[in-house]
Specification:
The structure is a single chain. This protein is an alpha+beta fold and about 110 residues long. It folds into two domains: about 1-15 and about 80-113; about 20-80, no CATH class. It has three helices and three strands; from the N terminus they run αββαβα. It has a three-stranded antiparallel β-sheet with strand order 2-1-3, with helices on one face. The chain is elongated, with a radius of gyration of 21 Å. The protein starts with a helix and ends with a helix.
Length: about 110
């Protein structure tokens, strides 16, 4: 059971959750606000830089006015590790491992006695 928990934690660390971040330039902040959206789970050691501007505009439900379009380039989008979600996931696995370990240990010791 401890080996299985270790493998789950290893998988969660190697494939952590990511977040797309939209940070509009200062001259557009009267219309647009900084926003974040889930970007899924991806291998830790690969490049996660946003590549498709149309897809990102769809993810953030942005329909820019013609005068805004030159400002909404890939430079205003980024991706970062979702540390909060990863911490909750790791905490849940550790807690469940401890609970199962204690439960199985007590049932095993009852069988021996």
């Amino acid at each position: 059971m401890l080996i299985l928990s270790f493998l789950i934690v290893l998988g969660m660390v190697l494939f952590p959750p990511w977040i797309y971040v939209f940070d509009p330039p200062a001259d557009l902040r009267h219309n647009l606000v900084k926003a974040e959206r889930p970007a899924g789970y991806h291998l830790l050691f690969t490049d996660h830089a946003p590549q498709d501007q149309r897809q990102l505009l769809t993810i953030f439900s942005l329909t820019p006015e013609p005068w805004e379009q030159p400002y909404l380039t890939l430079l205003v989008f980024s991706v970062r590790l979702d540390a909060g979600r990863l911490t909750v996931q790791l905490g849940a696995v550790v807690l469940m491992t401890i609970i199962l370990y204690l439960a199985l240990r007590s049932s095993y010791s009852k069988q021996i006695n």
